[in-house]
Amino acid sequence: MRELFTYNWQVRDEWFNWCAEQTLEELTRQRDGGVGSILQTLLHIIDVEVSWIRAVMGKPDVPIDSTEYRTLEEIRTLSQQLRPEIISYFDDDFFLVEKKKVYASCLMSRLTRRTVIAHAIVHEVHHIGQLSVWARQLNQSPVSANYIGRNL
User: Fold this and answer.
1) 2-109+132-137 is classed in which CATH architecture?
2) b/e burial code for range 134-150 (CB count within 10 A of at least 16 → b)
3) What interhelical angle do 2-20 and 38-57 show, nearest 10?
């Protein structure tokens, strides 16, 4: 599972680089589908990832205030700052207790840690697909989502 987070982070970082070539107007323009804008989508990806992982870790959710992250660099920095906490989780005894149940308040149900982690991974992949659609609408090539060749 950790290598899939590494994959997501590599692809996300490539999207940050792609975004650096765009105007702020394009990054903040409200779009059909997804969460709204490209920057809002990237922030949403980060927020959901850390929320689910903190739930699995038994820690309280710390909602990300979108008004505090308005630029690409602020969102990129946030992404980098939150990764060590996630990495440390996988360095612990995750696989020894992966079937332990976690309460998901947003669903009002209990799920296994493995299910929650898998959902967090797939959630990002879903939104990366939306970013790819938007890139094509801008007549630009999207970031490759190919897993092969990433040396994970």
Assistant:
1) Up-down Bundle (1.20)
2) bbeeeeeebbeeeeeee
3) 160
Q: What number is the average pLDDT over the span 81-102? A: 76
Sign of the C-alpha dihedral computed for residues 104, 3, 121 and 21 taken in this order:
positive
- Provide CB contacts within 8 A for 140, sequence distance 6+: 18
- Does residue 27 surpass a pLDDT of 80? yes
Tokens of 75: 């969102």
What CA–CA distance (Å, rounded) separates 2 from 69? 26
pLDDT at 61: 85
Which residue carries 């996988």 as its tokens?
A: 90
Residue type, 23: T
Q: What's the CA dihedral at 70, 83, 81, 130 to 10 degrees?
A: -10
**Chain centroid to CA 20: how far?**
18
Enumerate the domain spans of the chain: 2-109+132-137
Does residue 140 register a pLDDT over 80?
A: yes
